[in-house]
Amino acid sequence: TQLLEQSPQFLSIQEGENLTVYCNSSSVFSSLQWYRQEPGEGPVLLVTVVTGGEVKKLKRLTFQFGDARKDSSLHITAAQPGDTGLYLCAGEIRTYKYIFGTGTRLKVLA
Amino acid sequence: GAVVSQHPSWVICKSGTSVKIECRSLDFQATTMFWYRQFPKQSLMLMATSNEGSKATYEQGVEKDKFLINHASLTLSTLTVTSAHPEDSSFYICSARDTAGGNTGELFFGEGSRLTVL
Prior knowledge:
The structure holds two protein chains of two kinds.
Chain A: E1 5-7, E2 10-14, E3 19-24, E4 32-37, E5 44-49, E6 55-58, E7 61-65, E8 71-76, E9 85-94, E10 97-100, E11 104-109
Parallel strand pairs in A: 2-11
Antiparallel strand pairs in A: 1-3, 3-8, 4-5, 4-9, 6-7, 7-8, 9-10, 9-11
Chain B: E1 4-7, E2 10-13, E3 19-25, E4 32-38, E5 44-51, E6 57-58, E7 67-73, E8 76-81, E9 90-97, E10 107-109, E11 113-117
Parallel strand pairs in B: 2-11
Antiparallel strand pairs in B: 1-3, 3-8, 4-5, 4-9, 5-6, 7-8, 9-10, 9-11
């Protein structure tokens, strides 16, 4: 069974702090995506990484795909209350088919 | 970006009844759609892959007779929860891929449908 483990599961930090969320698996993925989900809504895509070692930046968010394409990280600099939400990684296990990670629930306090 | 719409957003039903949830791609055609289930404060669990014009592919442990999927057109997939019971209460989310015109196949998600079975 393919599994994507995210850590930490929960994170509560003060505004302005930095944080990193990890997404790990023993499986190799052809691509990996990060999503953010608000309560009662569907996930919204943040980024897709495809190449091992790839780093992508989206304003204060930095995403990295592991060299072996088995893991990824999301780093947020100077977190803001608007960053609060459920962060999900999703690995592509077959063409266009993704499995989702266990999720990281982030709360940023003002 | 592309839009995927689900209906209804909320549904409350009595135990034993069947409930149909629709997933529509509003501005693109989707030969493949995916159905997920999400329990409170948990991640998304892939239930099945809905293929236009053919049978859905179900993930291990998902009862195909319980969760009927129909993908009759390139813009509509439906999930019917048959003989619903309280344990079927959950947040159901669909996604669809836009692969036309060389698009990368980004997954677009619906808003989700919250089912509560009394």
